[in-house]
Amino acid sequence: MSMAEFNGNHKWYKAAQTPSELRYDVISRGWVAIATGRARKPGSFQQEKKQQELNGKESCPFEDLTDQEAPTAAFFKGKQVELPSNGTVPEKWTTISLLNKYPAFIPQENFQWKTNLIGPYQIMEGVGFHEVVITKHHQEDISQFSQEQTKELIDVYHARYLELQQQDFVHYIAIFKNKGKEAGASIAHPHSQIIAIPATSPGMDVALQGLREFHDATGTCAYCAMISWDIKDESRVIYENEHFVALCPFASRVAFEARIYPKEHAAHFEGITEQGKWDLALALQKTLRAISKGLGDPDYNYFIHTAPPDGGEYALYHWHIEILPKTGTWAGFELGTGIEISTIEPEKAAEFLRKQ
Question: Quick check: helix, strand or coil at residue 92?
Fold first, then answer.
């Protein structure tokens, strides 16, 4: 689908004046985004440091969406609703996706696949899409959700992924949630985000290299091997149902890290079935409930890691959700070496979470 065709269905996407920049790091071989859509003055960083609390309900921008950007998808009690033709928010909704008012990436109709050289550096237009997914209740988060509410959130993710992946310049779609100030959230109201960009995550390249090496040595998927071992071993499993397993990974990056994997090998999140969404909803809801109850409702980040829609070969990849509770802060060793320190064995973490 071309940008023109997309705008025909979503005319409320505004034409971009100055897209963000993607700058290539020749050492790490990854892209860095310079988000001009969120441009700030140097002095504003000092002001932000003084901020103590996130928005209360009375000043929450997500309680009244009148001043927000146009919706891209909305559901009401489990069913998708038709969006008004004038770009306003539908009268009834329980989960909604909107264009981000302060986007890190914005679409460009005349985007060209090229990089410009500046000395030893490469730069590319950082075009894309940036949406925010909001659930209705100001305080109720996934750990308090029912299975039905969680499944509706996954429905929104799925619907938006299916549409955004059709864009010519979209090579990677990130779906993620930041809960709480320590996890990077600037608004208290529960929400998550979707960003679609023309560059592939450098982490994907690293993962694929490891997967290829493991496959060459063993003839099997590394993820499938780990999942099969962990289900039999049981010591790191938090929860499992017919289609998904939640566990604390053997080499956990942080204390109480959790990952949710489909039991059957699948590279792409967007291929999930209707029953799969129900089972994923239960696994996500129960895992976050255990983390919230056991750790006193910590801030956290989660991400959906999936093979990108760029036409590449990703048969060895195994999509999953990664959940990182904010139980510590990176210090000198972690920042200097990239080696993270987790202060509890994953086996003990999983045992603790299973009891919640």
Answer: coil
Nearest to 73 by CA among 134, 28, 142: 134
Q: State the average pLDDT over residues 22-45.
A: 68
How open is the CA angle 319-252-248, to the nearest 5 degrees? 65
The domains found in the chain, sorted by start residue, are: 3-199 (3.30.428.10), 203-354 (3.30.428.10)
Q: From the CB of residue 187, how many other CB atoms can be counted at a distance below 10 Å?
A: 15
Q: What's the confidence (pLDDT) of residue 16?
A: 46
pLDDT digits 0-9 by tens, 135-146? 999 999 999 999
Higher per-residue confidence, 204 vs 149: 149
- Which element (helix H / strand E) includes 173? strand 172-179
- Across 17-112, the runs of DSSP E, i.e. the strands, are 20-25, 30-34, 71-76, 79-80, 95-99
Length of the chain: 356
Q: Quickly state the pLDDT bin for 229 (edges 50, 70, 90).
A: very high
Residue listed under structure tokens 């003084």: 50
CA atoms within 13 A on the CB side of 128: 29
Mean per-residue pLDDT for 120-146? Answer: 92
Q: What are phi and psi of 188, to 5 degrees?
A: -75, -35
The whole-number pLDDT of residue 45 equals: 46
CA 154/CA 166 separation, integer angstroms:
19
